[in-house]
């Protein structure tokens, strides 16, 4: 009979059809892998959406414009000229005026904003929540925080900037929820102290991050820096790289699941080969299964991820500090996540597909497991990769400040691959003491070594999961303040005269200082504190500047470039006494007393002169960054002609402050027009570490479970033999428990080892940062995972084999 | 007429050195179209090895295997797979039907693997099933079929299309005596229509359905006999038979 044959399509369709039917038939056995991939997709979708929406926050000030310029108004005529020039050059230019107004109790000055709610570019930066927008020159609309601070509502009157205003509405900036301001009617921007210009920059296309138009011909037209709106391309790329890493980990685990599947189908695939299927046809069956798992996981995980996003969006709005439209999803990135999931699932199925397709037909038909394949991974290659990875990480973080992300990623990947390559050697080492072990344990570790190619892959996946968790936990620990770190100790309150922490001005008038001292004492009384330490900042000599910056303690980071380390206070006798420093111990000529070991200087930003060398004496001062950690000597103030101004008071209680005391201090300070600072809480970091630890352990446990299931499938014949020769359920339990326990212990050892290798490389400039070791989490993982794995193996094993005579085909 | 299957001095050795096992020693065997040959022998005599080598599932250590005029030596794995799809069919003791596929889809599988469209392959599969009296079971899954029906589906799969070499390894091993007789009758009928067949069996009574019986022991052909005509011939010559 002559038959029209097409070599490609029909066989492929037949294989895919059978694979789909088998998936429908045996989906319960694939539930673990399917759930894992689905969860990974859901996490990727939710995480990507959160990351993208959070990242776009940096572009908030642009509204819908592609470019923005900020102009400090020193002279109103010049400002008008600059705006006119901008309009001539760019066409439509929206001007938003800003004027800072001090408000008692607020940490920063209130921004009185003159903005058109229907502005061409600025409209997305305003939303009316209640009442109406101001239209008259005496009307204001307030953000909720400002309304609460001033204790006014819509319809009330309020005194601000020595004027009386009528509050007509409540507004917010939907792209910056913490943006606190008072909105005034547009049109009076000329009286503002600074202007924000929004406009379209021709031909930018939103590709560059920033540009300055302050040179050449453009400088003649608009002599102010122009900021160009960036795009989220790099963020999207980073998100996709992170998703790819996650998918790689999940892929390693899924591969173990697909091996189990291929093992189960071995006889059926042997039958297919017997009736004429080629290796390609057989591979298609397993690959189609991977694609089905990937597609289903992508579909279900995608929906779950979006639902997760809906659930998380309110919290993200708070964290991202902006209103987020629920359906404002990064569709391109999400599509990338889903495609990555399918590609990962197919890639994970590739090796099992290739392996099962190569099993001789007779061996496949008989259901005999294939002869364990030797592993050719070199330990030397592993060592080279680990060393190279550490070097790359160290080079990517040369001084702990500047990061080369590509090099860092390459280093992390090299360490990860190095761990994979070293896994077979670890399995072999684990099998060395087998001779001395009881029979069940001996069998278990020898089976691990026999099937070391599979055991090593699983081990690498466990180590990867544990390593990732340990790295995150350790980095979180590094970034957590110890009791001697942070902004302040738990029993101190810093009361400030001003509301602008970034640019304090202090009070210079003796009467005002006396009044402020009394105000600070009221705050201390409100919380029952006995110690009140007045603190003076140092201001440069008067050079006619409207808002000079205080003298800073600074560190030279480059030629003629310094990084500010905060404002030192004056080393008064009272301060020296408080910190136990004997004035007689201060050397002659000393300008700065500091606890900082680095080559710091005193920086006067009012002059452009090189600060030169500062005579520094190291003393024992607190390391808290808001507390007095550097002091300028009276002598230095006299020599440089600087001025001192009372700016803050350090109030100390005997015990850590309670929430009620903090609230009382804040209310007392606000009543006197001052602001306070207390210790920043880091409870969320501790919760975060716990979540990461549990997640890593569960992930490791899931991989152990899959691998043990796989090895047990392959050694089922041995178990039948053992049972037939009289082995009890206890022996069978011991085999499974040992297999699970050894795999988990090795995974933990490699994971923690690899993580700390990477961490040592990353923090090589200051290894002491790693000293607060997260012992609780490490011990939980190091002992908890192997114990859990052993217990689970013991409990779940022990049943008699289902059949002794022969294996069923279906 | 040239033989459909020819084994020339075929030997098969497993293992090396002290663990070397000679499964087949210089076997010569030819099976003509229309002929059903039964292979008998004790366990370990090499029956299954002979069948798998004849079916190109394993390579002979020495000797030559010729199927439908084509020698297997030097043939690639894909060419052998194509030969199995087009020229020969297997019947196993455990039926080996693919779960998840209906009877018709199981039968159509070799044709689809060979590139025949699903619709055309189904048409041929239905014809094959109809020929074996299973037309009404075509859309049933293997789980829904009895043992005898499953083996008949497996036979339909082995003969569907234009294949003329039938290799059966203990095809009645999992069946009761009634179904065993039916299966052997079927194999005999198929061979009578022009196919060549080899059946490996332990059962002398079932072997009596074959045109010829080959006895193996320790990998060698120890006897080669043409048994009396099968049970049907006895019926045909019975007194009063017409």
What does this structure look like?
The complex is a heterodimer of chains A (810) and B (242). In chain A, the strands form 4 sheets. In chain A, strands 1, 2, 3, 4, 5, 6, 7, 8, 9 and 10 form a 10-stranded mixed beta sheet that branches. Chain A has a 4-stranded antiparallel beta sheet with strand order 12-20-11-21. The C terminus of chain A is likely disordered. Chain A is 51% helix and 13% strand. Chain A is an alpha+beta fold and 810 residues long. In chain A, helix 1 packs across helix 8, helix 12 crosses helix 13 and helix 13 packs across helix 14. The longest helix of chain A has 42 residues. Chain B is α/β, with parallel strands linked by helices and 242 residues long. Chain B is 35% helix and 25% strand. Chain B is built from 8 helices and 10 strands. In chain B, the strands form 2 sheets. In chain B, strands 6-7-8-3-9-10 form a 6-stranded mixed beta sheet. In chain B, a hairpin with a 2-residue loop joins strand 4 and strand 5. The chains are: A alpha+beta (810), B alpha/beta (242). At the A-B interface, helix 1, helix 7 and helix 10 of A face helix 2, helix 3 and helix 4 of B.
Entry keywords:
heterodimer, A: 810 residues, alpha+beta, ten-stranded mixed β-sheet, four-stranded antiparallel β-sheet, 51% helix, globular, B: 242 residues, alpha/beta, Rossmann fold, 10 strands
Task: Furnish the topology, listing elements before pairings.
The complex is a heterodimer of chains A (810) and B (242).
Chain A (H helix, E strand, L loop, with lengths): L8 H17 L5 H25 L11 E6 L3 H15 L2 E9 L8 E5 L12 E5 L7 E4 L1 H7 L6 E4 L2 E10 L8 E4 L9 E6 L16 H6 L4 E3 L4 H32 L1 H9 L4 H42 L10 H27 L3 H6 L12 H18 L8 H27 L7 H12 L1 H27 L13 E5 L13 H17 L4 E9 L12 E7 L2 E4 L4 E2 L2 H6 L13 E3 L5 E4 L12 E3 L11 E3 L1 H7 L2 E10 L6 H13 L3 E3 L5 H32 L1 H9 L4 H34 L12 H22 L14
Parallel strand pairs in A: 3-8, 5-7, 15-19, 16-18
Antiparallel strand pairs in A: 1-9, 1-10, 2-3, 2-9, 4-7, 5-8, 6-7, 11-20, 11-21, 12-20, 13-14, 13-17, 16-19
Chain B lengths: L4 E10 L6 E11 L4 E5 L6 H8 L7 E6 L2 E2 L5 H11 E4 L11 H11 L4 H14 L15 H13 L5 E5 L7 H16 L3 E5 L3 H4 L4 E6 L2 E6 L5 H7 L5
Parallel strand pairs in B: 3-8, 3-9, 6-7, 7-8
Antiparallel strand pairs in B: 1-2, 1-4, 4-5, 9-10
Helix pairs in contact in B: 3-4, 3-5, 4-5, 5-6
